[in-house]
Fold this protein.
Amino acid sequence: MNHLSILIVENEYIESLDIKQGLESFNYHVCDIADNTLDAIKMVEKYLPDLVLMDINLQEKNDGIGATKIIQEKYNIPVVYLTANTDQQTIELVKKTRPFGFIVKPFFNRELNGTIKTALYKHKIENELKQNRAWLFTILKSIRDGVLVVDMENKIKFINFAAEQLLGYNEDQISDKYIFDYLKLYNTETRQYVTKECLNLGLLNYSDTFLLVSKSGRKTLVETNGAPINDHRGSELGVVYAFRDISERQRSHTAIINKEKRYSELVNNMSSGVVVYRSCNKGKDFIIKEFNKAAEKIESVSHTKVLGKNFTQCFPDLNNTKFLQVLQNVWKDGKPKKLPLSIYKHNKLIKSYEFYVYRLHSGEVISVFNDVKEKKQINEKIRLQASLLDSIGEAVVATNQDGIIYYWNKAAEELYGWSAEESLGMNITQIAPAEISPDIALEIKTTLERGQQWKGEYYITNRNNLKFPVLIIDSPILDKTGKLVGIIGIVTDISDRKKTLTELQQIKEKQSAILEATPDYMLMVNRKMEIVWANDIAMKTYGHNIVGMNCNKAIFGKEKCSHRIDNTIFNDKKIKEREVSCSKNGKNNLYYHIKNNVVACDANQNPTSILLTIRDITSQKIAIQEKEKLDVQLRQSQRLETIGTLAGGIAHDFNNILTPIIGYADMSIRALNPEHEVSGFIKEIKSAAMRAKDLVEQILLFSKESEHNKKPTELITLFKEISRLIKPSIPNSIKIALNLPKSPIHIMADATQIHQVIMNLCANAYQAMENSGGILSINVEEIKTPEPYFNSEKNKDNNSFVLIKIKDTGVGISEKDMEHIFEPFYTTKKSGNGLGLSVVHGIVQSHNGILNIVSEINQGTEIQIFFPIISLKPNTTHIIEKPLMKGNGERILFIDDEQVIMNLGIKLLTNLGYKTVGFTSATDALALFKKQPGKFDLVITDLLMPDIIGTRLSEQIKNIRQDIPIMLLTGFGKNLQVIKAMPTIDVVAMKPLVISQIGEIVNKIIKKKRAV
């Protein structure tokens, strides 16, 4: 890993630290942590990280999405979302910002690492694609030819600057417009405008010239070309058209003809054949006026025999060719033509020409030509021989005697890195330099000139400056005189071969050591299944005398094979692998992996020896089985943890709500006359709020944010609450019969766990009656010692118990299922996890209780639970309320982001005799403390605040003034032990607090500070 820089944007400080620790374990560099969108954007501008991990919900709902849009558009930095929200609305908002990753909380570090790698790779590819597109459009815009691109409906999709100049329209004017409304091409031959059909059929090419009429009416002579645009499946997407202005070229060509007239005496000394014709018979034939020396040599005829005579008489072989038609066309329209022409007789090439024909101002027609028969034969021979090798996987390169490339196949493109278009016409030494000594170069040249093949190895360097060894086979191409005119080279990359030879040598040297050192048992057996060789570990395991023994006897202690280690492996002649289990020497459930390979054969290729490789995989098998069990437990634990996190969050918010209720109620009670009617009302409000506080504590217990606490628990009220909870979730076909005693019954228990037990058993009961309906009976009664269920020694001090019966009229439980009913992960439900009754059983046992089940198929099930009852002595004494512990004008800084709690804190502390300054912003409070650090005697702060969390605020305050005591308030029980252990926190108190508790805690802190 290259220590990539990552910015974390997360408003949960603890989670931010966990994410940071996970990233650093993968060698990522966390440049900073932001908990709001404003700081996040500032940090991006400051650090320019490689990637941003963004929580969707920070200060407001979905505000992380808005920040992501700014970061990606302004800084082009990839963003990966972190969220616990997977609702459809959030997902749709996320899609609009096109994030580079999306991971749902909670997650494993390896999931986060994989998402980050994928996001960085995707961002890299997108940047490369944008760069390639920019290059393409820059090239198209800057080339001198006019370029137009249209779709299948002939609507213009692209126009470059050269085309704008030719047409007289800019891109904004004609983009997405119909091409024939703006493109006017006039055919000078047909004297008609080009039609839609010509363009659609791709009939434009550079051999045709047209007059292009611009918007202003200006006419420009152009050459044209058209080509289809296809997708990767070959389907046509549109057409690209190119227009080249040839006006200047045409004028230059005319000037050249005029000059040739003035210097006609030079024609006779040209190496090319030159013939001047004058038309006759209205252009049907031509009279030869000039015939230079080169023409005499090429045609093997004296100029005296052809001058003044008709072309058709002198050269009958050319009468039926295109040449005569070309002469006639050039004479008529004056357009020069280039014509290759070959003449065959009896499928044999007789003559091969290259003609260039043009007309003079005088009306005479001139043909300049060369005999290219030999050249064509040589090139055809080169192309033929090279093309025959195009289908093989080796690189094939054809050059002339000077190394100029004529042919370059696909394998050569892959090997050297140069395309065929780039390489043709180049010298082989320029694009593929080779490390060849002068002596070897001379040897190659001499060998090829003798007409012999040369073969050898040397190193070459490709386009990417990668040097590697190759095997070269050069074959000469000779002309009819035996002169070297070309070379065909077959080039093979032998890097892998050389590497393989080296590795084979190393393997050969180490083979013996490996066979002996391997932890697998290796046995070589013959067709009689007798061991002829064994490695050291096999002999140590099975005995040093196993050579010569039957392999089944040696391995499994049996004469006959029960695992197909027999002669069938010799008949199949194939490698086979299998896993077997067996018992040996009193050990059960032993597992082996066995593989057989043929290592020797006779003259008829029948196997004579087999190598058996045997691996003991017993420990792996057991580990896999254990892992599968642990995976099931882990998934269940994760589900329970998620529910607990949700419950903890609810409890935190509820505590914040209860804090002002209890606080203001407490102050109101103390402010009013106890005999006042309103005082009684407020006492009832406080009492209800305190019950709610107890309920929150139960939620924190369930969410594992607090330790389980057993205390006297009244069952009758608990069952009434449970009854109200389950009624809405049970269908009308099931009736509930609740039978409770009138007198209260108390047991020593964790109310949350007992609540969980009853709810679980009621759920099982009504699920057993879902299809048929029935009655769910809940009975609670006080009984004496329930023999024989209770162990008298265990409960010898208890003589009174409560019996709880939960009965249904459902399908019942079979005897087979009853044997496993309390086993973890055993379930008879399609969607069950098998943990319900095992958890219930554990809770009952932890409360010194007994769980008993009575059931019959189709007769229903009755669950019986016994708990020992505790006696509560009536409290006849009056509780004497302690006087409030007040302060003496000490100064307190109080911070809570909830306005109502901040106001309450100021009033409570003021009533207790303290001078209090309150803030809802931790940032503002910190700024005041920096200015006046000696003004305060105590700081009270909330834990979870949007701008700075309480633990971080306490660190910054202690850095300013080490001796200032800090009290931290929280309604969230998570990580309390860790927070309490922090050196910057003096006291941690759970919300909500009554005025007497606050007075007592603050008084102790102040006294302790004075004593120091």
Remarks:
- The chain has a mean pLDDT of 78.
- The first strand starts at residue 5 and ends at 9.
